[in-house]
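Crash report, auto-generated. Payload:
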Amino acid sequence: MANDILLEIRNLHARVGEKEILKGVDLVIRKGEIHAVMGPNGAGKSTLSAVLAGKPQFEVTEGSITFLGQDLLAMTPEQRSWAGIFLSFQYPVEIPGVSITNFMKTAINCRREAEGKEPMKAAEFLKLLKEKMAFVQMKSEFSKREVNVGFSGGEKKRNEIFQMAMLDPVLSILDETDSGLDVDALRIVAAGVNSLHTPEKASIVITHYQRLLDYIVPDVVHVLKDGRIIKTAGRELVSQIEEKGYDSIVEA
Amino acid sequence: MGKVYIIGKDAVPTSLKVGSGEQVDMTLVVLPGTSCRLDMDVEITGPDASVAISGLYVCGSDEKVGISVRLAHTSGGSISRQLFKGIVGGKARADFDGLIVVAQDAQKTEAYQSTHNLLLSGQAKADARPQLEIYADDVKCSHGATIGRLNEEEQFYMRSRGISLAEAKVLQMISFISPVIDTIADQSEREEVRSVIEGAIRDMVR
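Recovered output after restart:
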């Protein structure tokens, strides 16, 4: 059904500087679906997530992206966030001097302002903050720390999932969220992602390895290679890749 | 924690002699719209003295801010710390000269100085000239100067969370300048300076 479509990417070409990285990506994501995008290094996986989030350095030269019926490419990164897109960064950025509390309060109130709403009441905000910190098993001191400054790899990724829980996005893009995680942190992160998932939402899980997909089970698996999706199948594709490698995948 | 001096409003003691065991702690604030030329001369003449001078300037139109601090340790066993931070936008210009002199007899001196500028526009200009003249051999001294621009990776990260570009810049600038505001001892003065600086920063990103 057409009205189930959340995201529709058509013939997407994108480059950084002179280098073309995405060379015609097509992808349709419907409500309730979890998609995995797998592929070797340099295939364009992180470029795809950066283009979806609107990173300024990436230039789209051809194609279109429609999100909930809106032209995503015409929107600023903050407008995309307000519309319900969330990118969990592969390398979360440190923001010295800005506490987690101040960061999240500013994020939530910017969105409310864009929606014509009053800022969130302090008590309501604190309740939400506590609830979501508990959700990713963060201690209460966490909210006072500067965003990602001095965080371990696991803390950074949990912080991403914490922010995702706070912002309650419609489409979550997890860019190599498993990289640098030990098994315990991986479980917390995966449990977080799974419990935020609803039939109205969707996720794109970008990963190199099978490991994360043991915990977050995809409905659809895509293989991205040299800037194009060369194969799309069900979750059985994951084990084929794990056994035989990306070279075994040939374009259908 | 420092006594605050609003440049152009409060008289700054520009020539100081700091004797044995004395403490001086001051925060200089150059508010937006203020052009100034400030030359300070500080001499530490005895042991166990401590001098802390912090300063901030926020100038976003066509101000000219010139600050020079000459700090001499003529006697050893004392400590001095200087921290200056400035946000320079529009066609404003900021110059900082900092000279630390440690005399030959001033052993066991500790002297630190750092200056950081944030440039907001192509026409804004900031210069920092930190200098050390050390004639003693058993001292701890350092100086550093940076001139930077707002980090775009940070901005994209914040925007991806729904923080507008303007608000992201405000957060970046406030977090940059806060360490100096935090050195103001009196709480009501500190909060007053913070609110004036925040207001000025918001005007600059508009």
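Post-recovery validation: Chain B touches chain A at residues 152-154, 156-165, 167, 171-172, 174-176, 178-179 (CB under 8 Å).
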